[in-house]
Amino acid sequence: MPHIVIYTTSTCPYCIAAKRLLRRKNVAFEEIQVEGDRAAFAKMTELAGGQRTVPQIFIDGLHVGGCDELHGLERDGRLDPLLTAAEARA
Asked: Which domain holds residue 15?
């Protein structure tokens, strides 16, 4: 199973949409809420190459980007192979 980490805030509609897509794919993910947590926000920003918006999504350490990028991968048929490749490495 791929290790998916998604950095979020509780009220962000893009975070909700990204999590909804991952749930539809039946993949487990670790959610790290950054609101009010400066250390988590700083770590997210560092891992995401300076990106400060949420969500920021990582699949087995690979920075996928945000909600738009995740949905773009799905739309282009590239999300399932990415998830399968991550699962095969596990």
From this structure: 4-89
